[in-house]
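Example S7 (structure tokens).
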């Protein structure tokens, strides 16, 4: 294991043949000398390292410092003050907006990445989460993938465009924002930019986090484009009771009532509800999968009642497929009682639902009440739903992605996806800016360490992804 310094380090994969590098597995990675890096790769790494090593944990870190650091990089790279804006809407909170000016022939493109990260404890990690560590062909650090990879790539590539004298047909705007990891609940991040500086971020469409490249056995098999997100809504379930002494138990027990309702909820499935994105997802996933999985995916798409229902039931055993098929609600927190020798006067649970785009939120509450089947279990929505319509699968977006993907990731299926989580893309979509999650960052299918212990990205993936985004943005922006 080595902690990487800004210069003089060793351990890089060979920087040539970037398009093919991603096809290598970690097992075939070979350490090589740092002098093999070109100037663009070195710049990307230096920016990445600087961002990683600024603690930007949402609640306790300093995203204003990170925004200022990236603003300084851009000014040093030749950007005028008028095109670089670092904002601090609250102490330790920062957003950055920068612009590479084009001819204005087309409306701008917006490149979005968040610079806040979730907490990470040193005692829980194998490495220091706030130092960029290279080990066994991976970069380890909190935020290495979520989302400082994209933030570093966008800043490094913006500098590269300017130094090359690139003049796109449209302005290229980079927005680095805070508080995405708490869904911008205090409106200090993307919502603040949209409200206070809409003119600086207005664009025809945006690229955001959310769609990566899936590797299987070291080979890229899919390149995802996230066009929509499920809607996160949480509910509190409450049962109240007069209570009493535990030596005189009665059948009407608040904990038992709540537990019985939750048991009924645990066996319930919302109906299958496919949309444009999930239909395309299942169609193209069936191309990659073999055997019963492919047959079931096609059966669900056919809509033939008996076979589709049986296929959906089998697919639902896989949590990922299940989440793509329907709205889900799951109990996540439980509380009850006030003393070991007293009958409970109160029992409560919190349930988090991820609602399919387009489904009415009120209908989910009604369904919960029906499934719980007990009028003594009160259901209360405890947060605000952020609804957003899916971004259209336009040829203007999918075409360039398909073209470049064939070059960088030959044989990989370009796969439209719906996120079961949430990003700031919902706020952008609601503001009339279609948003596509697409990173070019490759990782093994089945491994997801974002928000978890020892978050990491493949070293080869970091460099290939940077080059992929550099090329893709040029395809989307046009010009010379």
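Recovered sequence:
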């Amino acid at each position: 294991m080595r902690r990487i310094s800004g210069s003089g380090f060793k351990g890089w994969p060979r920087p040539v043949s970037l398009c093919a590098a991603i096809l290598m597995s970690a097992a075939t990675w070979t350490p090589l000398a740092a002098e093999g890096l070109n100037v663009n790769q070195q710049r990307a790494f230096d920016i990445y390292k600087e961002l990683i090593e600024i603690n930007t944990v949402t609640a306790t870190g300093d995203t204003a410092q990170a925004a200022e650091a990236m603003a300084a990089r851009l000014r040093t790279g030749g950007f005028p003050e008028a095109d670089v804006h670092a904002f601090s809407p609250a102490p330790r909170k920062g957003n950055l907006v920068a612009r590479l000016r084009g001819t204005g022939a087309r409306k701008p493109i917006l490149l979005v990445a968040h610079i806040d990260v979730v907490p990470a404890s040193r005692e829980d990690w194998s490495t220091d989460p706030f130092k960029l560590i290279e080990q066994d062909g991976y970069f380890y650090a909190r935020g290495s993938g979520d989302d400082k990879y994209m933030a570093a790539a966008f800043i490094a590539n913006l500098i590269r465009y300017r130094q090359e004298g690139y003049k796109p047909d449209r302005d290229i705007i980079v927005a680095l924002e805070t508080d995405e990891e708490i869904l911008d609940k205090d409106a200090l991040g993307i919502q603040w930019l949209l409200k206070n500086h809409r003119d600086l971020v207005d664009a025809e469409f945006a690229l955001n986090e959310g769609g990566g490249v899936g590797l299987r056995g070291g080979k890229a098999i899919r390149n995802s484009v996230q066009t929509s997100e499920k809607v996160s809504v949480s509910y509190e379930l409450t049962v109240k009771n007069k209570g009493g002494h535990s030596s005189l138990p009665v059948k009407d027990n608040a904990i038992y009532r709540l537990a019985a309702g939750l048991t009924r909820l645990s066996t319930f499935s919302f109906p299958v509800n496919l949309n444009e994105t999930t239909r395309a997802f299942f169609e193209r996933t069936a191309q990659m999968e073999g055997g019963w999985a492919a047959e079931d995916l096609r059966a669900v798409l056919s809509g033939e009642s008996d076979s589709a229902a049986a296929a959906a039931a089998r697919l639902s055993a896989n949590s990922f497929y299940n989440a793509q098929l329907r709205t889900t609600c799951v109990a996540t927190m439980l509380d009850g009682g006030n003393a070991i020798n007293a009958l409970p006067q109160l029992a409560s649970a919190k349930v988090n639902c991820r609602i399919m785009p387009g489904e009415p939120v009120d209908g989910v509450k009604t369904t919960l009440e029906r499934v719980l089947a007990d009028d003594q279990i009160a259901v209360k929505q405890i947060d605000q739903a952020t609804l957003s319509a899916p971004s259209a699968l336009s040829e203007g977006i999918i075409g360039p992605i398909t073209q470049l993907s064939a070059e960088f990731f030959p044989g990989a299926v370009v796969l439209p996806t719906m996120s079961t989580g949430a990003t700031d893309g919902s706020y952008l979509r609601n503001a009339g800016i279609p948003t596509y999650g697409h990173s070019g960052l490759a990782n093994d299918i089945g491994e997801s360490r974002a928000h978890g212990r020892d978050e990491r990205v493949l070293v080869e993936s970091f460099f290939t992804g940077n080059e992929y985004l550099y090329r893709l943005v040029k395809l989307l922006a046009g010009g010379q």
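Notes on this example. The longest strand covers residues 219-229.
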